[in-house]
């Protein structure tokens, strides 16, 4: 999942060490639009629709990486698994990987759409769009999130979007992040565990996905599972960094036997296939029900297999290639979620008669100065008045190295990161000396009920807010 856990370690060698529903009700937050964390005037700013506003920019602009050489760090690591290497903080973005996972929920309207559909095919189309949208926030995000400390947590309740979310770092070697989310209307459960394996190949860094993602639509008594595509960051030594997603993603509806197969295409020699996604939905008898196509950086469409094949044949015969140029009125007529989808200049070749499944959200105008964050990502580390009193002491928002980096205090952030890693090392040695096993707090090891594979399952109870036995990790 993008730049993910594995770079920073609590036993990194010296060669690579750094040189220099209930929650919102319980909280009386100051949700005004603010660029400065901790600067409050006590007034609550409400949008016209009654939804609280979240901040629209970070407290400080992104720090320049131009004076730093990643090669000096990575040249000894070619072909190695990057779980023992500490990277300078300048290559980070001011979010924990647990917060990065939460970005799955940016396009939650697709889950809501799936819940509202009467037909299983239309539900699968919405779930497929959700699976693709989950990786879309990574586009141009070349900063590395902070590795979560063992026992670190992150919670997010968004009443305006209808969900709450909790995650925990349940293992450090290998790094495993477990998460659980539920609809505030008890209409869905979304959960999983992620532990990507990272490798450095000289010019690129590849994150191979591990772990199962599960979405349960409770009203329909359906469960869908899938695994993310492989993510690769190119030009880590010289040139402009860019991201590629590739591999086959299979989404299985365990109730109906329907399956969606999505092929995230590799770039290819001349970049013709860059960012392209193509696939299909089939029923339990392997009959193709529809074809899905688009780009994970732009939009996703579906059409019936016959139309798709006819179009492809005419394209091969030199037929005129039709670009997607649809007015807002047409989009609205084809998709109920048009308001969530800003106009974007697409490069996907539109097949007449196709249905729009999803379109990427526009980023804020100052996104390039904010690590290419989406508006949703900008809000994730926001620490509003009253939050500290109610959050778990292990929550990412309270983590001092991330907070200082977000505020532009890079030297302090670097020292805090080093201190936290040393504290984690010391705690591990103490446990080893006393022969004490680490105990996870909110998740436990178990078996995914749908795939039969090993998984981390939510134990419950987080939102009861009994944090008396949480570890002191900061």
From TrEMBL:
Biased segments, Basic and acidic residues type: 29-43
Look up the record and give one Gene Ontology term from the biological process aspect. lipid transport
- A GO term, aspect molecular function: cholesterol binding
Xref: SUPFAM superfamilies: Oxysterol-binding protein-like
* Matching Gene3D superfamilies: 2.40.160.120, 3.30.70.3490
Coiled-coil regions listed in the entry: 403-437
Question: Which Pfam family, just one, is annotated for this protein?
Answer: Oxysterol_BP
> Per the UniProt record, which residue ranges are transmembrane?
none
Region: Disordered, residue numbers: 29-55
- Which PROSITE patterns does the entry link to? OSBP
List UniProt keywords, sorted A-Z: Coiled coil, Lipid transport, Lipid-binding, Transport
**What InterPro entries does UniProt report for this protein, alphabetically?**
OSBP_sf, Oxysterol-bd, Oxysterol-bd_CS
Q: Which GO terms describe its cellular component?
A: cytosol; perinuclear endoplasmic reticulum; plasma membrane
State the source organism's domain of life. Answer: Eukaryota
Q: Which family does it belong to?
A: Belongs to the OSBP family.
Q: Which PANTHER family match?
A: OXYSTEROL-BINDING PROTEIN-RELATED, OXYSTEROL-BINDING PROTEIN-RELATED PROTEIN 2
What protein is this chain from? Oxysterol-binding protein
**Organism, scientific name:** Rostratula benghalensis
Q: Which gene encodes it?
A: Osbpl2
């Amino acid at each position: 999942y993008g730049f993910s856990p594995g770079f920073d370690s609590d036993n990194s060698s010296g060669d690579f060490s750094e040189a220099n529903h209930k929650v919102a009700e319980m909280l009386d937050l100051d949700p005004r639009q603010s660029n400065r964390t901790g600067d409050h005037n006590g007034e609550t700013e409400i949008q016209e629709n009654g939804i609280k506003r979240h901040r629209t920019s970070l407290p400080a602009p992104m720090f320049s990486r131009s004076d730093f050489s990643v090669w000096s760090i990575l040249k000894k690591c070619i072909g190695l698994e990057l779980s023992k290497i500490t990277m300078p903080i300048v290559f980070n973005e001011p979010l924990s990987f647990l917060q990065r996972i939460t970005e799955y929920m940016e396009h939650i309207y697709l889950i809501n759409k799936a819940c509202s559909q009467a037909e299983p095919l239309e539900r699968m189309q919405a779930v497929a769009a959700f699976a693709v949208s989950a990786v879309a926030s990574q586009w141009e995000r070349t900063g590395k999130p902070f590795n979560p400390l063992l026992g670190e947590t992150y919670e997010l309740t968004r009443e305006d979007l209808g969900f709450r979310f909790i995650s925990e770092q349940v293992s450090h070697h290998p790094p495993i992040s477990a998460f659980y989310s539920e609809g505030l209307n008890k209409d869905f459960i979304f959960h999983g565990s992620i532990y990507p394996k990272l490798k450095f190949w000289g010019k690129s860094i590849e994150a191979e996905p591990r772990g199962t993602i599960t979405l349960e639509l409770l009203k329909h008594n359906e469960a869908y599972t899938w695994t993310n595509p492989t993510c690769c960051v190119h030009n880590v030594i010289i040139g402009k960094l860019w991201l590629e997603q590739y591999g086959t993603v299979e989404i299985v509806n365990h109730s109906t036997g329907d399956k969606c197969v999505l092929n995230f295409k590799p770039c290819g020699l001349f970049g013709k296939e860059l960012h392209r996604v193509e696939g299909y939905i089939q029923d339990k008898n392997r009959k193709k029900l529809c074809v899905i196509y688009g780009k994970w950086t732009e939009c996703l469409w579906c059409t019936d297999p016959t139309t798709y094949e006819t179009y492809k044949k005419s394209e091969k015969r030199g037929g005129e290639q039709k670009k997607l140029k649809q007015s807002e009125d047409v989009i609205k007529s084809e998709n109920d979620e048009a308001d969530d989808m800003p106009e974007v200049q697409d490069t996907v070749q539109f097949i007449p008669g196709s249905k729009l499944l999803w379109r990427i959200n526009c980023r804020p105008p100052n996104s390039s100065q904010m690590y290419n964050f989406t508006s949703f990502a900008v809000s994730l580390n926001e620490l509003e008045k009253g939050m500290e009193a109610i959050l778990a002491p292990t929550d990412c928002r309270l983590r001092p190295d991330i907070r200082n980096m977000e505020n532009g205090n890079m030297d302090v952030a670097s020292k805090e990161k080093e201190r936290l890693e040393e504290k984690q090392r010391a705690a591990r040695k103490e446990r080893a000396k006393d022969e004490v096993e680490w105990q996870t707090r909110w998740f436990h090891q178990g078996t995914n009920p749908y795939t039969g594979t090993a998984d981390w399952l939510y134990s419950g109870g987080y939102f009861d807010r009994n944090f008396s036995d949480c570890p002191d990790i900061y």
